[in-house]
Amino acid sequence: MANRHKLEGLFFVSPFIIGTALFFLYPIYQSIRLSFGYVVDIVGFNVRWVGIENYVHVLLMDTEFMPIFLEVVQTTLIRVPLVVIFAILIAIMINQNIKARGFFRTVFFIPFLLGTGVVMDQILIQGVDEQVLSIADGLIPYNLLFYLGSDVAEMIMEFFSMLVQVLWSTGVPILLFLSGLQSISDALYESADIDGATAWEKFWKITIPMISPTMLLVIVYSIVDSFTHARNPMLELIQERAFYNIWFHRAAAMGWVYFTFILLLLVIVFVVLRAYIESGSSEYNHKRKVKRG
Question: pTM here?
């Protein structure tokens, strides 16, 4: 029976394995080869080995890479917490017993279907994210913005502009949080009500600990989504180096530096949050044993 389940699992993941072998392994090999080499003949794609010269140039000599890289990291550090917060709040609201609950779930997921990749790029080119600034003008008096100064006003406008993109990116996180919320037993909330717990206490003592594995998945997904966003300036720089400047070797080195940072960040986030989840689970089991005793 165990072998049968293994074969069934292998059958379902076989398209991913075959697709990876056919379409990813060779490009990855060529990308690594380019990052340590120099294209001598672009027609025959002959590459001459230069060692870490491309990486040294990218990290120490390229005047655009590091500023753009730091800008992308800063944007991600702001965007990911906003995505997680808005996603969990919206998921909790549409998880309530309200009318047209299925309609609201569909509405929040539609932007993910319509606004990914090239489609999202074209939408942003049309200035959809900037149209929200007219709403900001109505919420914040012009005299107050003038008093705060141009720097603060620009920061507020950038926040509202980012808010549109954040809400546009919450489709998948909302669905993930919904699945986590629906897996929580109602008996836990009923017991908390009997003990006189408030809604705030139930949120922090029951909801958050129970959906912490889902939250880990959402955070990892949001980080990857932010670093691979359609209008990510780092990806635009890599494309410019490769296809405008015809510096395939420099673009490959940039890509691998960028990928390595993302991978290390994901490992750190996963390890830290996983340790937090396990410690919370151990504390919860300990309290249950004490209560039973």
Answer: 0.74
